[in-house]
Amino acid sequence: MLLKRLILKNFRTYSDLSLSFKTRLVFFIGDNGEGKTNLLESISILSGLKSFRGNSDDEVTKWNENGYYIGSLLTEDEEEYKLEFGYESQPTRRKKIKLNGNIFKKQADAFGFLPCIVLSPFDLIIVEGSHTERRKFVDHLLSYLNKNYLNTLNEYNRLIKQRNASLKTNQIKKELLLVWDKMLCEKDDFIRNERKKFINELNELFQKNLKLLSGDKDDFQLYYKPNVNSVDEYQEKIRMNFEKDLRVGYSTVGCHRDEISIGHSNRDILEFGSQGQKRSTVISLKTASFELIRRKLNKDPILLIDDVIRELDVKRRQFFVDLIRECGQAFFTTTDLEGIQDYIGNLSEPKQIFSIKQGGIEELN
Ligand SMILES: Nc1ncnc2c1ncn2[C@@H]1O[C@H](COP(=O)(O)OP(=O)(O)OP(=O)(O)O)[C@@H](O)[C@H]1O
Ligand SMILES: [Mg+2]
Question: Quick check: pTM over 0.90?
Answer without folding.
Answer: yes
